[in-house]
Amino acid sequence: MNLNDLTNLELLQISQYALDELELRSVLKKRNNPIDEYTLWLVENKLKMRSIPLDQEGYYARSLDGRNINIIAKTHQLKNSSSIVGFISERDLKLIDDVMLIIYNSKYYVTLALIIPRD
User: Fold this and answer.
1) Which residues 6+ apart lie within 8 Å of 15 measured at CB?
2) In 10 A of CB 107, how many CB atoms?
3) Confidence (pTM)
4) Are the C-beta atoms of 59 and 68 separated by less than 8 Å?
5) CA-to-CA distance for 89 and 94, rounded, in angstroms?
6) Torsion angle of the four alpha carbons 84, 88, 89, 91, in this order, in degrees rounded to the nearest 10
7) What is the predicted pLDDT for the residue at 85?
8) Please, is 25 exposed, middle or buried when counting C-beta atoms within 10 Å of its C-beta (0-12, 13-18, 19+)?
9) Residues of the chain with pLDDT under 50
10) Where does 47-112 have alpha helices with state H?
């Protein structure tokens, strides 16, 4: 298999299979989540938003019409299919206009995508 011939999505799917197996073998207790960076890539390339480093501004992206967007990405895992997401601090809430919530299944296909106004 030549990794250069695979799409970004296929590469993410392969990494998911490997992480699942390591979790089944109890090698992993916590897993790094590559979906955050993949989601930012999707937002930049498919939705034409501009990503902003969170530590710089307090939000993740700016839409074409200038709205500040906080992006929350969640992946359903082998042992956890919960769709519960965390909270946004009051400080960060003051900096954003909308929240974009994207939930992926375990094969990295989007199962839910919402834009929720701050209000």
Assistant:
1) 34
2) 13
3) 0.72
4) yes
5) 9
6) 180
7) 78
8) exposed
9) none
10) 54-57, 90-93
